[in-house]
């Protein structure tokens, strides 16, 4: 059976992340970002504009 759940990319490290099993998430400018680890989330939160493509 194929996994059809959406996969997103951790904006810090580029790893594929499934929202329902992500280690962490963060909100920025009305969007939710998902992360493979709390460390990636902390890195993102320290400077979100570095990781969000305008």
TrEMBL record:
Where is the TRASH domain positioned along the sequence?
10-48
Instruction: Identify the InterPro entries for this entry.
Output: Ferritin-like_SF, RNR-like, TRASH_dom, YHS_dom
Q: What terms describe the molecular function in GO for this protein?
A: oxidoreductase activity
The record's section on SUPFAM superfamilies has: Ferritin-like
Name the Pfam families on file: YHS (PF04945)
Name assigned to this protein: YHS domain-containing protein
Task: Cite the source lineage.
Answer: Bacteria, Bacillati, Actinomycetota, Actinomycetes, Propionibacteriales
């Amino acid at each position: 059976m194929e996994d059809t759940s959406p996969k997103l990319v951790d904006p810090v490290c580029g790893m594929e992340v499934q929202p329902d099993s992500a280690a962490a998430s963060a909100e920025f400018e009305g969007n939710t970002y998902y992360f493979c680890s709390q460390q990636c989330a902390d890195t993102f939160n320290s400077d979100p504009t570095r990781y969000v493509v305008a």
